[in-house]
Each structure stands twice: as structure tokens, then as C-alpha cells.
Amino acid sequence: MAVVTSVDNAAVKAARKLARRPARDAAGAFLVEGPQAVREALGHLTQLFVTDPGAELAVHARQAGVAVTQVSDRVLAALADTVTPQGVVGVAELPALDLADALAGARLAVVCWRVADPGNLGTVLRTADAGGADALVCTAGSVDPRNPKAVRASAGSLFHLPVVTDADPGGVLAACRAHGLQVVAADAGGPVPHTAVDFTAPTALLLGNEAHGLPGEALAGADVVASVPILGRAESLNLAAAAAVIVYEAARQRGRPAKARPCR
């Protein structure tokens, strides 16, 4: 296998463009970086760039029919979003998902309402997956879950859950109710402790923007506005931390059995 050493290689140039959303939208593809994320994305990969073609992950990718290209460390660094890449960057595709399809049969859907930080969004997605949620919905105005940082923070969970992007904020609440979901808005000033919410009922959990929270129309349209009590002197919880607390309370109430897996 010839080693690609130039960033001007056609395949490398096409892949590098996917760091920007317009290119992702046009191509219907995005970058996946690191062994864990690439392993989880294997069934969705169209191309894999590696520095070691003999690595187990590269072998599995070839066996799955993925085009594997060996590149130099310099080229991989140009493809990667991290300062110290881990030797593997893939190009993956996921089909666009309709909101109604994602919500059909869901017991817990997490809705990110104009969430701006890709690391937060990816971590919420990973948390939703780990806590047994059935879908994640991103409203229009939210960061793209295919953003390289969001993909990395999701640690592969992007490929485990139905994920809707660019959902119309005005239609999300109506769609949730049409599918029999109670709407629970998470807000630092919410009058109801999250532990007092009945999460045994099918639920859509709304999470707002990191700086501004949920807008008035979302709070007014919710069935319950809930908060995580602050016991110390912190002003509030990070969005992803609050999501973890609430999602796991929902899992506890529904009696979801825990699976012993290592934390990464």
C-alpha cells in the first residue's frame, strides 16, 4: 500500500473539507477521529485514513469493505481535529432522520434546544445513550452533532441513537405530544425538583442553551419545569452534568438494569 504524504491528495483534500458544516451538508458525510469512535462507526464508514495499515482496526475496516488509505503522520495531523491524533480518521455517513420516526415508540427523548457548544452536545449524546434514552433531537440553531468535536465527545454514541438535526423549534413540542410524550423542561429556576418528576411516563426532556437556557415559549409549553437542586455554592450545573443527573434519575425510576462497563 502506497503511503500518501501530501495534503494535496484528492481524497485527503475532500475529507479535510468535511471539517466545515456546508461541506458536510453537501456531501452527507463527516469526519470521525480516534479508535473508539471509528470502531463504533465501522458500519457507517466509507473511507479510513490510518498511519498503520496493519492495525486491527484497519484490518476490520478492509474486511467490511471500507477503503483504507495509509497516510503519513503529517497528513493525518492535517485531517485530525486534535493536537495529538491517535493514528486513525474516518469518513462516515448517517442517513437524515425524520423527527416523527425518531420519536415513534420513544420512552425518553432528549431535546437539545439551541445548544451551542459541540463538546457539550457530544457529551449529552453520550450521556443519553449511556442512560438508556431512545433518541436525541437537536433544534435548528443547535451546533451540528457531526461537528468533529461533538463526534469526538460522543465517543461513538452518535452511531447508537437516532439523532435528529435542525428540528423546527416551533414544531418540537407538538411532535412530542403527538407521540404521547410529556414535556419536561430543565431550568435552573424550575419549581419542581427533578426527583419529583414522574419519569415512568414517556418523556421528552428539554435542555437549553448554555448561556441563555430555554426560551420562554419552551418553558411555557412544558408540562413540568424541573431543576436539579444546588446544594453548595455553585451558581448552576454544566449542561452536560445536569443532563446526566436527570437522565439517570429517569433510568432509576424506570428500573433500567445497570450494565457493568468501564468508564473511559
Describe the SSE topology:
Elements: H1 10-17, H2 21-27, E1 30-33, H3 35-40, E2 45-50, H4 56-63, E3 67-70, H5 73-79, E4 88-92, H6 99-103, E5 108-112, H7 118-130, E6 135-139, H8 148-154, E7 163-167, H9 169-178, E8 182-186, E9 192-193, E10 203-207, H10 216-221, E11 224-227, H11 239-254
Parallel strand pairs: 2-3, 5-6, 5-10, 6-7, 8-10, 8-11, 9-11
Antiparallel strand pairs: 1-4, 2-4
Search tags:
single chain; 264 residues; alpha/beta; 60s Ribosomal Protein L30, Chain: A; Alpha/beta knot; 2 domains; 7-stranded parallel sheet; 4-stranded mixed sheet; 11 helices; 11 strands; elongated
Any overview of this molecule?
Helices cover 35% and strands 19% of the residues. It has two domains: 10-92, 60s Ribosomal Protein L30, Chain: A (2-Layer Sandwich), CATH 3.30.1330; 99-254, SPOUT methyltransferase, trefoil knot domain (Alpha/beta knot), CATH 3.40.1280.10. It has helices at 10-17, 21-27, 35-40, 56-63, 73-79, 99-103, 118-130, 148-154, 169-178, 216-221, 239-254; strands at residues 30-33, 45-50, 67-70, 88-92, 108-112, 135-139, 163-167, 182-186, 192-193, 203-207, 224-227. Helix 7 (118-130) runs parallel beside helix 8 (148-154) and helix 7 packs parallel to helix 11. The mean pLDDT is 94. With 264 residues, the chain is α/β, with parallel strands linked by helices. The strands form two sheets. It has a seven-stranded parallel sheet, sandwiched between helices. The chain is built from eleven helices and eleven strands.
